[in-house]
Amino acid sequence: MLIDLFPSLAKPDYRYYHPLYFDKTPVGWVHQARIEVLTQFPGLFLIQANAIYFQSDFCLADIATRTQMIAHFSETLREVGIIQNWRDEAYGVYRPGEDLQTPIFTIERGVAPFLGLRVYGIHINGYQVPADLDAPIERLWIARRSHLKMIEPHKLDNIAAGGLSYGEKPLETAIREAMEEAAVPYDLAQHLKPATKINYIAEYHQAIRNECIFAFDLPLPADFIPQINDGEVEAFYQMTPIEIEQALRAKDQFKPNSGLVTLEFLIRHQLVQLLPDEANALLEVIS
């Protein structure tokens, strides 16, 4: 059943997490097993019985100073081996309800999950335009992630996807990722269409992943074949909606959040029908 996709995106058990506050505003979650690490940074974190707060000096500082303090914290975690998925990429951190507006600080992408901070990404559903424009979509391009990837190696994925770096707009990131990961020419990338925003919160390796995905649709001509370009992907497949549905129903075929984006595409274009319990499970994940 399609709900087999969703256990990998199960809601966190918040009993094991402490909320992280910035100036009385919740911005993250920290697993209780990681609180001991934060006690080594008393100038940055105030640890209380059931919650963690950024220190008042941090909150009163300007964005540049906060970012510098967070960078010191992040570099220390990297040096002692706690953070191993370092990406050399900055993410913006925002107050709830202020996505992509004024950040309170920026943080290394690989460190954001440690603090359960909200992150942002783009995913692209690339599909072949039917010869009859009124006909249903018959083919999508699906990527196979490199077996060298640290996260979800060798899983099926969207034609292109990536994190939203601080300072970039979603469409800018989508165009860049399409060109970098699938060698989509700039003229074809101009046809990217913003489709929807998908929000989900899941637990992964004693960390809460709170992500907002900007999903894009990319119509592609029949003669276009994506090319491996930056090593993120090891193969591309042209798959029918039925083949994709079968892969989604099989456990561990898709990278979970990419499977969620692909499933939303199939539903939105009326290429798959969900059973009532599957629809309820999907709503539970993205609610």
Number of helices: 8
What is CATH's topology name of the largest domain?
Nucleoside Triphosphate Pyrophosphohydrolase
- Give the overall form: elongated
Distance between the termini: 20 Å
Number of strands: 13
**Strand content bin:** 25-35%
Number of domains: 2
Average predicted local confidence, pLDDT: 93
Rounded to an integer, what's the Rg over CA atoms? Answer: 20 Å
Fourth-level CATH superfamily of the largest domain: Nucleoside Triphosphate Pyrophosphohydrolase
Helix-and-strand structural type: alpha+beta
H/E topology pattern: EEHEEHHEEEEEEHHEEEHHH
The major β-sheet equals: 7 strands, mixed
| Uncertain runs | none
Name the helicity range.
25-40%
- CATH class type of the largest domain: Alpha Beta
The CATH architecture of the largest domain comes to Alpha-Beta Complex
Could you characterize the architecture of this molecule?
With 287 residues, this protein is α+β, with helices and mostly antiparallel strands. The protein folds into two domains: 12-114, Transcription Regulator spoIIAA, CATH 3.30.750.160; 119-285, Nucleoside Triphosphate Pyrophosphohydrolase (Alpha-Beta Complex), CATH 3.90.79.10. The protein has eight helices and 13 strands. It has helices spanning 35-38, 56-60, 63-79, 170-182, 186-189, 241-249, 256-268, 276-286, and strands spanning 17-22, 25-31, 45-47, 52-54, 90-93, 105-108, 118-128, 140-145, 156-157, 160-163, 193-203, 208-220, 233-239. Strands 7, 8, 9, 10, 11, 12 and 13 form a seven-stranded mixed β-sheet that branches. A four-stranded mixed β-sheet has the order 2-1-4-3. It has a two-stranded antiparallel sheet with strand order 5-6. β1 and β2 form a beta hairpin. The radius of gyration is 20 Å and the shape is elongated. The protein starts with 16 loop residues before the first strand and ends with a helix. The model has no long low-confidence stretch (mean pLDDT 93). Residues 121-267 form the Nudix hydrolase domain. It comes from Ignatzschineria ureiclastica. This is Nudix hydrolase domain-containing protein.
